[in-house]
Each structure stands twice: as C-alpha cells, then as structure tokens.
Amino acid sequence: MAELGDAITRDYAGETVIMVGVLKGSAFFLADLARSVHIDCTFDFVAVSSYKKGSRSTSGAVKLLKDLDEPIEGKHVIIVEDILDTGITLGYLRKIFLQHKPKSLKIAACLDKPARRVEPIEADYVGFSIPNQFVIGYGMDYAEKFRNLPDICILPPDFPA
Ligand code: PRP
Q1: Is 80 helix (H, G, I), strand (E, B) or coil?
Q2: Alpha-carbon gap, residue 20 to 67, rounded angstroms
Q3: Given the DSSP bridges, would you call strands 135-136 and 153-154 parallel, antiparallel or unpaired?
Q4: pLDDT band at 45, cuts 50/70/90?
Q5: Assigned CATH for 2-154
Q6: Atom in ligand 1 nearest the alpha carbon of residue 147
Q7: Which of 44, 82, 85, 112 is catalytic?
Q8: CA–CA distances in Å: residue 134 to residues 65, 152, 156, 159
Q9: Which protein residues touch ligand 1 with a CB less than 6 Å away?
Q10: C-alpha to C-alpha distance for 75 and 134, rounded to whole angstroms
Q11: What is the reported pTM?
C-alpha cells in the first residue's frame, strides 16, 4: 500500500486528485490507499449494476446506478477498484468518464486478474497481479458475503452456491 501511495504522491505532486471509488468492493482499498497518498485529494463514488452478482462468472452489460456527485471536467481523476477482472466495468467507466473531459484519468486496482481480461484495459497502479481464482474479503464478496474479512482469501471452487 505504501508503494502505491508513494507512486501516486510522486505522480501528482502539487496537484489535487479526485479518487473515485466503485461501490461496493473498493471501500477498504480506497480507505487504505487514500491514507497512503500525501497530496490534496477528494473522494467521490459511483455504483454500477452488478452483472455477475451471486455468481463467479461474467456476462452482460454494465449500467450506472449511482453517478458522480461532483463534476470531473478539468480535474485529475483516479478510479479506485478492488479488482480488475474482465475489464468490462472499468472499460465502461473509463468511456463515460472521458466524456466529461477530466484533465487526466488513471486507474488504481488492488488486484489484477489479467488471465480473465475481455476488454483491453490496464490499471496504472496495481497492488497485486493474481491468478484466476475467486477472491473474497477486504471488501470483496461472494453473493454479498465475506466483504468484512480483513484479509484477501481464496474461495474454494467447491464452496456451495
Ligand atoms: C467487482 C469489482 C469490480 C468488477 C470487476 O464488482 O468490484 O467492480 O467486479 O469485474 P470486471 O473487470 O469483470 O468488470 P461486483 O460486480 O462484484 O460488485 P461489488 O463491487 O459491489 O462487489
């Protein structure tokens, strides 16, 4: 976390950044990352429809359930995600955020699962690159459960649905 925070602090020295958390999974990561970043920053949050809720697989389109509260035009924006998986969510968010003409737009992801990528998208700041295993805890859920586990854990493949 300190390394990610240092990189962001360096890259945005003297600037103000809006950190945009994608609900709900990013809550813990945003809270920790923001405390490791030593620049002026504000928070905003978006929520998107969870096209894979209650399952481990991905299909379908993304819909915006909660938009930004503040305008991002001319501002430095970092989208903060718990996990970059297929890239469908971040691909969608990047597209709509760019329409608002931010001064810059970057992505910070706690975890990256490159093997699962469908959309050609990469994060600018990545905590850990991980293999294709289903992870829970530290904000991440399985059917809304386990978000409160303090550590990131692997959900066994035979865990009952
Ligand atoms: C997770 C995660 C990302 C998205 C990444 O959210 O928080 O938003 O999936 O997956 P993708 O790269 O395949 O689009 P989820 O839909 O589980 O909702 P949550 O944040 O409320 O847990």
Answers
A1: strand
A2: 11
A3: antiparallel
A4: very high
A5: 3.40.50.2020
A6: 22
A7: 85
A8: 24, 10, 8, 11
A9: 22-25, 50, 52, 58, 81-90, 141
A10: 34
A11: 0.93
